[in-house]
Amino acid sequence: MKTFAAIDLGSYEQAMKIFTVSKAKGIQEVDCIRNRLDLGSDTYATGKVSHEKLDELCLVLREFVSIMSSYKVDEYKAYGTSAIREIKNTAMVLDQITQRTGVKIEVLSNSEQRFLDYKSIALRGERFEKIIEKGTVVLDIGGGSIQISLFDKDKLSSTQNLRLGVLRLQEKLHHLNVRPSRYGELLEEILSAQLSVFKKMYLKDRNIENVIVVDDYISDIIQKKLAQGQDAGYVDRASFVTYLDYLYDHTDEEIAQRFELPEEKVQLLRISSAIVRQVTLLVEAKLIWAPGVTLCDGMAYEYAQKHRMLTQVHDFEQDIVTCAQGISKRYMGSKRRGETLEQIALTIFDSMKKIHGLGRRERLLLRIAALLHDCGKYISMLNLGECSYAIIMSTEIIGLSHREREIVANVVKYNHLEFDYAIESSEGGSIDTDEYLTIAKLTAILRISNALDRSHKQKCRDIRVAQKDGELVLTVNTPEDITLEKGLFDKRADFFKEVYSIRPVIRQKKGI
Fold it and tell me: Looking at residues 437-446, what average pLDDT do you find?
């Protein structure tokens, strides 16, 4: 058994959960410590955290360290989300925190954060799997933004991030300088404007029955006050609307007393509730489920997976692939050719593990690059490489970090263009050595995979790969004419040899 601590530096609240993790008993929560410190208002308004709030945050983290020591924690993870991510001087702030508290904080990209939230829901096991059998929206509400993810036939089909977070909306309302009684009306206008665009682009004829809510504001209310019968966390749309009427018709003091929460949290509760209402009405869902999970639960799930103490309850990798397939479809990518390149590229990758030294995660990145290899043609067939790069870097793929998405974008780009030996990061500066080599290795594989289907007729789907006499022999089993593929193969083979010091060659086996 291991003892693990998960620390979440949120926009409005900092939380630490202590878990015990074992193969026999799975993940069990031992303790939960929360501290209310509003970091987000500073960050979203000025791009910086005040010295006073930084001092208070360090005091909180030193207390967390003391609690971890008392529990004899084996390992911890501390993640910062949007309130830390959007600070202009992030590196300086993180260094000060580490020096003053000893706590090392990693900053999650939005897609990584939402993916962990999504994993935390999966901890509910059969309840999660059952509810996503029907059309479902996961609404993940944060301080800076919301994430709307669509499930279709138990697979994640698309996801979008909208800057409609609770603290960000609160700032907008304060700037409008109107009386609180008008907040509901103005929130509805702000939310409906952006959500209507989302509906036109992503919902169309989808039938959505359920909304799963993950947040720090309304989930407890749904769990403890609104849930119907013995089904904790479930509430139908009509009951939720009745609850909203209560919020609009009563004072902050009355609401705080009714729902047993601090009065200063009431406005945030109103905003979060308004978001849930607008999304529920938008998708015409019948049921709302708040599983009552947090980012810390997702961190515990990740820790248990890493140490092989938990049987995976959902295929998260396939969700990432399905999301990439959805992006390809949106930009008119060729499904048949994408699947052909994926099959060829993975066959080559799997046959040369001892040569490339890459792992399962890099294999996933290659799959995604193959599926998105031609997305840029939606904009320009002439500038396919640059346009593909722009689309991938501008499109969130939930489950991938920003840097992983950048690797995929570069692999697709240099599949079409001459390789740049001085690749620069989109964040400025050079790509680090490991990422650079990963880009080069995956590009080399995708290039020769692409060469094996230059005719776009899928002649070379049936291939075997073997290393022999200093060559990587690609034996193609097909009776069709592959003169075009052979003729255009050499140039792409040159770069492959430069990367791996082994030359790929085509051999044809005509079959029966």
Answer: 96
